[in-house]
């Protein structure tokens, strides 16, 4: 059994892990604390900072921009922005707003995001009621959408009526796009790598159909084209057959709120898993949440794609 160990304990609601294979560090965000983080497994140092202009805005992902040192694409509420951060304790700065989505839905928030094999940004939204007392009250059904942003900042809506836009992944051949709407499960689409368009949506995996409690959250893929999905409110990471949707492996995580995951490490064979506290309130400090690392899985991930932004 692969050991699950705590790497960082000082998080309240971790999200969006991204392994930078050039720097050999893991970037991730703290969604409810509105911070961005850099974890170096070699030194065990975790550096955390806020975004200077937006100290109290939900921050869901941070992706390095290709060819621009210290520059990242990120999301703040409904804005896709370019961020400058040197990876130290100085506050990060929003350089510019690249694009806006769902401006006619002020309750919406951008959630997970990733760059595709050509560097285009894929991200989506969900309807959010922060005064809700539980997950069902906090999420507004079918208010979100899935978007693609091209290098020139042009936005394309790819799907709609999404409840909780979440994890994203592409297979090794760039022909299949995997996507999580958390209330629905894992979907797969035919993917056109030349255009970035998706089609032919099919359901691949629905947790309740397999007797799994909880909902699908963040998603990644290994070099065998098997999926690894975080099960929020389920204390699990699942390995899923990318073709059939069968469960291949279950890994227990000592936290109910498993949010996302990414392969990293020198050989891309360590699975980093973010979690969140169960209280889901900004005023709550990091009780019950951690960044975990799982070694010895016998699989490897792909290097994460960087965003291409003009």
Descriptive notes:
- The protein is an all-beta fold.
- It is built from 1 helix and 25 strands.
- A hairpin with a 4-residue loop joins strand 2 (14-20) and strand 3.
- The termini are far apart.
- Residues 280-286 have low confidence and may be disordered.
Q: Topology, please?
A:
Elements: E1 4-8, E2 14-20, E3 25-30, E4 35-40, E5 45-50, E6 59-64, E7 71-76, E8 79-84, E9 93-100, E10 108-115, E11 121-128, H1 135-138, E12 139-140, E13 144-149, E14 155-162, E15 165-170, E16 176-181, E17 185-192, E18 197-205, E19 215-221, E20 226-232, E21 236-241, E22 247-252, E23 257-264, E24 270-276, E25 291-294
Antiparallel strand pairs: 1-25, 2-3, 3-4, 4-5, 6-7, 7-8, 8-9, 10-11, 11-12, 11-13, 13-14, 15-16, 16-17, 17-18, 19-20, 20-21, 21-22, 23-24, 24-25
Protein name: Regucalcin
GO molecular function, one term: calcium ion binding
Organism: Papilio machaon
As a percent range, the share of strand residues is over 45%
Report how far the terminal alpha carbons are from each other. Answer: 45 Å
Coarse shape? globular
Which sheet architecture does the biggest sheet show? 5 strands, antiparallel
